[in-house]
Amino acid sequence: MRGVMSSANWPIVLVEVVLVMGGTLAFAWWQLRSLRRDQEQTRREREAREQAERSGGGVSTRDPDQP
């Protein structure tokens, strides 16, 4: 009796490994893309908020009763 896996199963194993690794890489790429998009959106919102504060159009978070 030969080993547990015969050579007839290797193509199926190879296809399964490729599919699992491909799915993992696709998921990682998707998550990194989403993270980059969220960081860009946050950066744009922060810049817009800072620009509004510099131009005097922003809402002050400072308490007017405090000196």
Task: From the structure above, extract its key features.
mainly alpha, 1 helix, 67 residues, 67% helix
Task: Please describe what this structure looks like.
Helix content is 67%, strand content 0%. It has one helix at residues 10-54. The relative contact order is 0.05.
Q: In sequence order, what are the helices and strands, one letter per element?
A: H
Mean pLDDT: 86
What is the tally of beta strands? 0
Beta-strand share of residues? under 5%
Multimeric state: single chain
Unreliable stretches covering 5 or more consecutive residues:
none
Roughly how many Å is the radius of gyration? 27 Å
Q: How far is the first residue's CA from the last residue's CA?
A: 89 Å
Q: Output the structural class.
A: mainly alpha
Please give the share of residues in helix.
55-70%
Q: Largest beta sheet, briefly?
A: none
Number of helices, counting only DSSP H or I runs of 4 residues or more: 1
- Bulk shape: rod-shaped
